[in-house]
Design goal:
With about 450 residues, the protein is α/β, with parallel strands linked by helices. About 30% of the residues lie in helices and about 25% in strands. The chain has helices at about 10-20, 30-35, 55-80, 80-100, 105-120, 280-290, 320-335, 355-365, 375-385, 405-410, 450-459, and strands at about 130-135, 140, 145-155, 165-170, 175-180, 185-195, 200-205, 210, 220-225, 230-235, 255-260, 265-270, 290-300, 305-310, 340-345, 350, 390-400, 420-425, 430-435, 440-445.
């Protein structure tokens, strides 16, 4: 068995004996395993472990007892309701008056209050082992629609469950359902409807089973199911029959770059080694006497971009922001129906638009951006950097954006794109159309004016 190295610190008795006699005391050998546990690194001296003192042991016990007491105290505090705290405090005061002054009236009152508290506490005992099923028929609705759901509770135990309450949180509010006494294998169903007045994502649940006394002094709550997200989509309008650009890739916007193989014919030129013989124009070849091939203009894919500004200073009120979101959603949905490449962006970054539902889900969660993120001008610069091959760009902003900012934003867009700006202004009664630089700018007061405004642009 290996011995501990000589660098071990001597024990307390050895140091005390050495201090008395003046002679050094030999170190006490210790097992190598205990020595290794105290080593900090390979080059540091090893230190022998020491036992905890009585004070340290008592401090550890007190800290453990305090943690347990605090945990129990928090559990008790969650059970007692405000009225219960008032009654408990009143009972303590009445008991003190009865014992201090010997008043029989206060003694009787204290006994009655204590009996009431004990009886109310008895209602908390017992298990509420329901099997709960939360079913939302639709988890994606439009503003103004009702989300209908059902709540089913089944008693799968072998004993009867006393009446209780079920709490269903919905966003910032909550619904409370009274569950009657359920015998074994008996079930109870509740149907509810959630009204939606504004866009957003509501958290439905988790369902909690609450048991309490008739006086409302004590309450015990247990969560039974995870929450379900309810997406409230913005309102949209149909733009059927309207086309903001090219519908297919074969009709992409022609660029100034010449190509040997594309769909937009440009001119004829002499044959060069490497040209595809399929593009030889035989009639011109016979007439000129030299091999002539077709030359094409390179076309771009129909890349559709929707830029929605979320800068808070560009909107006069929250209603304008909602109109802008609805306009951007309507234009984006039309682009997806036309099977185009849709790229939606805000100051927060790209908006995922793989499918129509995912696109509307992202818009449901949209909030204002920070002022330091910039307005529509910064958004246009981001579009130019991330979508240089865009064919059509639609910028959506609020009424507090002036013409100078719109002109600067449109000038930052990629060269050759078709630009359209939609301004949400709840003060106008009819859509208006004007030209700023190379872009068409339409102003709408509500979503219903959008189809007529876009029709004006196309005419």
């Amino acid at each position: 068995m290996t011995q501990a190295p000589e660098t071990l610190a001597p024990s307390r008795r050895a140091r005390r004996d050495a201090g008395v006699s003046g002679a050094p005391a030999p170190p006490e050998p210790q097992p190598a395993d205990d020595v290794a546990e105290e080593a900090t690194d390979a080059g540091a001296p090893l230190v022998a472990p020491r036992e905890a003192t009585r004070g340290e042991r008592w401090r550890e016990r007190i800290e453990a007892a305090w943690r347990s007491t605090a945990r129990v105290g928090r559990a008790v505090a969650e059970v007692i309701r405000p009225l219960g705290w008032v009654l408990i405090a009143s009972t303590i005061v009445v008991w003190w008056l009865a014992l201090a002054f010997g008043w029989e009236e206060f003694l009787v009152a204290a006994a009655v209050l204590s009996a009431v508290i004990v009886l109310c506490i008895a209602f908390l005992f017992g298990r509420t082992s329901y099997d709960i099923e939360l079913d939302l028929t639709r988890t994606h609705v439009v503003v103004g629609e009702r989300a209908v759901g059902g709540l089913t509770l089944v008693n799968n135990t072998s004993r009867t469950i006393l009446p209780s309450e079920v709490v269903l949180p919905v966003g910032a509010g909550r619904g409370v359902f009274q569950v009657p006494r359920l015998a074994p294998a008996q079930e109870h169903e509740e149907v509810f409807a959630i009204p939606t007045s504004r866009r957003g994502v509501l958290s439905v649940g988790p369902v909690s089973v609450r048991r309490g006394d008739p006086l409302g002094l004590f309450e015990r709550t247990n969560d039974r199911r995870q929450a379900v997200d309810l997406y409230v989509h913005p309102r949209t309008t149909s733009l059927d029959g309207l086309s903001l650009g090219h519908l297919r890739d074969l009709e992409g916007l022609p660029a100034q770059h010449l190509s040997r193989d594309d769909v937009s014919f440009h001119a004829l030129r002499e044959y060069q080694p490497g040209d595809d013989l399929r593009h030889v124009h035989w009639k011109s070849t016979a007439r000129v006497g030299e091999v002539m091939v077709r030359q094409y203009e390179e076309t771009r894919r129909s890349h559709f971009v929707v830029g929605l500004s979320t800068h808070p200073d560009e909107y006069r009120d929250p209603e304008e922001f909602e109109v802008a979101i609805s306009a951007a959603a309507s234009v984006g949905l039309r682009a997806l129906r036309d099977s185009r490449i849709l790229d939606a962006r805000t100051q927060h970054g790209p908006v995922r638009s793989i499918t129509a539902r995912r696109f509307l889900d992202e818009l449901s969660m949209l909030e204002h951006s920070r002022p330091r993120s910039g307005g529509v001008v910064a958004l246009a610069g981001s579009i130019a950097a991330h979508a240089p091959q865009a064919a059509v760009v639609v910028l959506v902003t609020g009424s507090k954006t002036d013409a100078a900012d719109l002109r600067l934003a449109c000038s930052r867009l990629p060269l050759g794109v078709r630009a359209l700006a939609i301004v949400a202004d709840t003060r106008v009664d009819a859509p208006a159309l004007k030209r700023i630089g190379e872009a068409d700018v339409v102003t709408i007061g509500d979503l219903d004016q959008l189809p007529r405004a876009v029709r004006k642009v196309l005419s």
